[in-house]
UniProtKB/TrEMBL annotation:
Keywords noted in UniProt: Membrane, Transmembrane, Transmembrane helix
Biased composition (Polar residues): 1-18
Name under which the protein is recorded: Histidine kinase
UniProt superkingdom: Bacteria
Provenance organism: Hymenobacter mellowenesis
Region (Disordered): 1-25
Chain ranges passing through the membrane: 33-54
Amino acid sequence: MSATQSTKTGGTGATQAVHQHPQAPKTGGAGRLLLKVLLLGSPFLAILITYFVFDPFRVLYHYQRFEGPLVAIANRDYISTQTYLNTYERRPYSSFILGNSRTMGYLTRDWAKLTGDSLSFHYDASSESLYGIWQKLLFLEQHHAALKNVLIICDHELLKKVDDYDSHLLRKDPRTTGASTFAFQLSFVKAYFSNTFFYQYLYQRATGKFTPELEEILEGRRVAYDPLTNDLTLPDVEQEIKRDSLGFYTKNDRLKRSRKPSVFKAVIGAEQLRQLVAIRNVFARHNTNFQFVVSPLYYQQHLNPADISILQRTFGASHIHDFSGTNEFTSQNGNYYEDSHYRPKVGREILRRIYSAPGDSASTRP
């Protein structure tokens, strides 16, 4: 018979039990406190469960392919590394395109026609850093990649950054850097809860709608990831340009130049040089055919001549191809999707010039 039943029947057992256990009221108080904590924490737990169920950033579970719709903007560094690990054993890649998101202007199929190597992989990352490129090359070495050809797409931002990011979208995959996996995963959980991101994400999943506000934090356009080469393309944007190029560029406010051409401040210091030398040593170990492209930026800024000079002294002038500043690529709005990324037709022409026959004047600057 329970203590409650004893009280109802008027028995003395309950009274004795109370005398024998003077702490009982405290236990009940603790229970009520726990219940309150659970009630207050239940919304948090419910939201946390949705994170583990939906895995919005695709970093919790193993994915063999990333070509499906990615509502939450993904960590490109993680996708690139996972895609490589998914495929490298059956496709022993020996040529690699490295750099930031501007590498979308260079497709492996275009590059392979010039290098003769069909085993090419696009190993880029959003807002890639010099540190990220160095760590990726070491990671590829650890996985016994041949490193026959390497194409590095760079700019002043890439050359400036020599450590990891804190942002969940930009930080390096810990499998390439040896950083904490827990800290990497925790950054995505924090991002899910910050600024009610979870609400925007769940709203879009429930309604299928993208409002102008949602487009700032979620991926509304179709992004295609090649599951073998990891090439990233924007088919929706390309189709829109093809249907009405005049209308596309007329309405795109981000393609109205308001800045005059300028020269970036020099960014290569002692740590940058140390990492550049380490990258050069990787190439030397593998007898790599490597090339650097300085991107043609929409606002026509020149990479600082001092940085160009250091790159040329470190790697050899014939390996550095500077397309920054004002030139035939940067003067045409139609070469860009917006003010940050140029289209594959630009990359194809740059590749043609770089890999043209020795002595061809087109192999250096435009």
